[in-house]
Amino acid sequence: MIQPSISKTDTRMTKAVTPQERLAITLRYLATGETQTSLSYQFRVSQNLISLIIPETCSAIYEALQPIYMRIPRSQEEWRKVSQDFPQFVELSPLFRSIRWEAGTNGRASDGGVWNKCKLKEDIEYEEIGIHPPANLPNYDIQVPYVIVGDDAFPLQKYLMNPYPGNDQSNEKHIHNYRLSRARRVSENAFGILSSRFQVFNKPIRTCPERANMVIQACLVLHNMLRTESRQDYSPPELLDQEDIQRRRMVVGQWHDHQHNALGDLQVIARRPKRDAMQVRDLFCTYFNNEGSVPWQNEMALLH
């Protein structure tokens, strides 16, 4: 699939590194995070050449697989399908795949600094990505907007929900935060699996931003492909954080065993959210405690 893009021609002086070797070098780098010096010794290819092979092959992987495994929704109907499928992701996290990513902000930036530079924020606020207009939740006669689920590192917006702050909360707010956390666990599992399978993320990627983007792109489309084609081998159930509803307990996934804090938390800066955003969060809180409640939520919320 990518061979034509990474094939090189032999010269009179030098025999070209084959496409198979180029792919092997790149996959080894992504899977282990080994240094280019180490890879040079293993594959008997110069370090300078490896520094060119990896981004070139990563780019070829992304270009070949993205249309198949990482297609970005473009219409209201496609986004509505994403929202309809999400409850399955909450129950069956191995189904989850990335559909959009952005990189390039300094890791020391605050939540606001990261989000304000995010193209997704701009696209949502200028209504450029076709997200479906507000709609009723099941058995609920009040319309609410479609929202992104975030943690307290992100600012509360009408389209971006985060938990109620503080520890001294009413039972209703505690239930809301549990339900939000339950939904957010899908993406947390995805990041956990990504960094455990692609250990290049377990330490800083020491290259320029453009090449780092190529590495991230390749890992994400490979992640999506493996979740689709080899789900049981790539992300078996024991790898994931899960709820054992029957026993009312949390089961910690094995991906935590591979974490080295490379995908660290964002800096949280307290800020006063806008009134309309707080009203949307209150609507979800009311729904989770009434029409949208689930039988186990009171007991499971105590574990959070």
Write the layout of secondary structure elements.
Layout: H1 3-6, H2 19-32, H3 36-43, H4 47-69, H5 76-91, H6 111-116, H7 119-125, E1 135-136, E2 143-144, E3 148-149, E4 160-161, H8 171-197, H9 209-229, H10 231-234, E5 242-244, E6 249-251, H11 275-288, H12 297-301
Parallel strand pairs: 3-4
Antiparallel strand pairs: 1-2, 5-6
Helix pairs in contact: 2-4, 4-9, 8-11
How would you describe this protein?
A hairpin with a 6-residue loop joins strand 1 and strand 2. Helix 8 packs across helix 11. The chain is mostly helical and 304 residues long. The strands form 3 sheets. A two-stranded antiparallel ribbon has the order 1-2. The chain has a two-stranded parallel sheet with strand order 3-4. The radius of gyration is 22 Å and the shape is elongated. The longest helix is centred in the middle third of the chain and has 27 residues. The N and C termini lie far apart (45 Å).
- In percent terms, what proportion of residues is strand? under 5%
Q: Give the topology string: H per helix, E per strand.
A: HHHHHHHEEEEHHHEEHH
Give the fraction of residues assigned to helices. Answer: 40-55%
Spans of at least 5 consecutive residues whose pLDDT stays below 50 are none
Going across the major beta sheet, what is the strand order?
1-2
What is the subunit organization of this protein?
single chain
**Shape label:** elongated
Helix/strand class = mainly alpha
Distance between the termini: 45 Å
The total count of helices amounts to: 12
What is the radius of gyration?
Answer: 22 Å
Mean pLDDT: 87
State the total count of DSSP E strands: 6
Largest sheet: 2 strands, antiparallel
Domain DDE Tnp4: 102-224
GO molecular function: hydrolase activity; metal ion binding; nuclease activity
Family: Belongs to the HARBI1 family.
Cofactor: a divalent metal cation
